[in-house]
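Quick note —
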Amino acid sequence: MNTQLVALGWNESFQQSFDSINNGKFIPARIVRENRGEYIVNTGDNLCAVRSSGAVRDRLSTSDSAPTVGDWLAVESMKATGETLARELLPRKSRFERQVIGKKSSYQTVAANFDTLFLVSGLDGDFNPRRIQRYLSLAWNSGAQPVVILNKSDLVSDIELIIEAVQKIALNAPVLAMSALQPESLSCLYEYLAVGKTVALLGSSGVGKSSLVNGLLGEERLASQEVRREDSKGRHTTTWRELIQLPDKGMIIDLPGMRELQLTGETSGIDKSFADVLELATRCRFRNCSHNGEPGCAVEGAITSGELELDRFNQFMQQQTESAVVNARRASRKSPITKSQRKRQEKEDYFKEIHIQLRKHAKERKKYLEDD
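Predicted structure written out below.
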């Protein structure tokens, strides 16, 4: 197997997929950057620009299936025209997708084929454990291992208590604290950055993703900006997606900060993120318990005893409701039979009403526990 490709993340699975479609003229290449309809790819020997052939564009016409940074392509060099065309997109081992801003039923794959997903959060005025929880539900859907990175640890004095609190919601995701401005603190990340491995960085603007990449590179390659003093919120510094090779430490994909953090509909991420709530639910007297006043409800019992925080349960129910709404939209969009606008609206209104009732129930329960 080509060692230069292996350093880029090539493995036996990709090789088998490539061999099944190779006509003798194709070569494998990994997308390292998107550039106005073209892709900059690395073939192991060099970098070159490619564009998708018409057949590829027809098959991959939606934004959630279109090639993106981290993808492996089978490309062909056209001697007649001197250009390189993407002929096939190889199956992905992982991917991260998000809702297209302003389009409720459209989703975009923004990175693919990473081994680990760093969920970066800044320990400044914009630190938000609830946001970390939502990122975790999205991250578990990707097919890669999420790791919570608490950046700007130099700004706090009680870092051990913060790590302990975040670990309670992270469950099976490791929680690491470091400072991008202190190179010696980055050593905790090295086990995930081995040669041939890929890490994707995900987080809001201003959490220090670009500074983290610069710290790992040992140079100021990516631009970074200071957060606003009044609320510690950042401005978008990274505006494109790029696969960056680190010196002897694998690869990293720096993703632009997400303005909106919408769930994508898959429930496996929520199940993993709230595995503790689901485990409690198995102890309920009734298998179809809605945790809303039924006798023998283990979830409500855990809330009353303090074993489960009410806020965590509310987040679980909220994400379940959001996921159901998204799934209904996606099913409608993919259905071979076009549904009327009225039917779609009725379904959306139904789930909205469920959400309203759940929030009302949560407020009543909180008041009840406080009075008690």
